C-alpha cells in the first residue's frame, strides 16, 4: 500500500472515472489533492466529499494559458506540489478514413498537448521542493496499433514518447516521469464495459479492470516507494499486452 503522507498532487480529469478513484485513494493514503476537470458539478461534489484534503478547480487541460493558474491554486492551497497525474483525456473510435484532421487536432490538444503543457507548468513547483513524480496515463492503444483508433491512438503513442523524453530531461531535477497503459477499465469513457468475472473473456484475466485498480498503481508510482523508477511503462490490462491470447473454447 503506497504511503502518500504529506504529498500534494494535482490530478487532471479527476471529476469521475479513474481520476476520481485516484483522488479518493490519494486522500486515503495521506495526500492533499487538487482535483481538476471541465466537469464542474461532479468535481465540486467529489472534492466536498473528501473534506479539507481536496479542492476542485475547473480547468481545461487544452487551454495552455490556464495551467499556471491551476498550479498556483495547488501551491497556494496546500503549500507545494509534489505529484502531477496527467489523466484527462477524450476518446473516439473511428476508422482512419472517416477521421477528419480537425478531430485528430482536437484529440491531440487534450490528450497530448494538455499533458505537455502540464509537465512544463509543474516543473518549477517541483524543483522548488527538490523533486516530484509525474504519472502520464496513456493506453494499450499507445503500445500497439488498434484498429479504428487513429486519432486516440496517435495521442496515446505521443504521450508515451513525451513521457520518455521528460524522464530523461527531468531526472536531473529529481522529477520522475512514468507512464501507465490501461486496458479496458470500466468508467464512463467506455460505458458499454461490464465488470466482474467473465466480463471480458478475450483477456487472460477474463474481466475488465476497475478504476480503483489503476488508482493503486498510480499511487505507487507517485509515492517514494517508487523512488528509483523513472521512464518506466507499466501496463495494467488483465494481460492484454502480453501477446496473442486464445480465449477458452476457441
Ligand atoms: N477506460 C478505459 O478503458 C481506458 C483505457 C485506456 C486508457 N484510458 C485512459 O485513462 C484515463 C482516464 O479515463 P477514464 O477511463 O477515467 O475516462 P473518463 O471519461 O471517465 O474520465 C476522463 C475525465 O477527463 C475529463 N476531461 C476531458 N477533457 C478534458 C479537458 N480538456 N480538460 C480537463 N479534463 C478533461 C473528463 O471530463 C473526465 O472527467 C484517460 O487518459 C484515458 O484515455 C482509459
Give the key terms.
single chain; 250 residues; alpha/beta; seven-stranded parallel beta sheet; 7 helices; 7 strands; 38% helix; binds nicotinamide-adenine-dinucleotide
Number of strands: 7
Secondary structure tally, helices: 7
Class inferred from helices and paired strands: alpha/beta
Query: Globular, elongated, flat, extended or rod-shaped: what is the shape?
Result: globular
- In angstroms, what separates the terminal alpha carbons? 38 Å
Q: What's the Cα radius of gyration?
A: 17 Å
Oligomer category: single chain
- Poorly predicted regions: none
Give the proportion of residues in helices: 25-40%
Spell out the helices and strands N to C.
EHEHEHEHHEHEHE
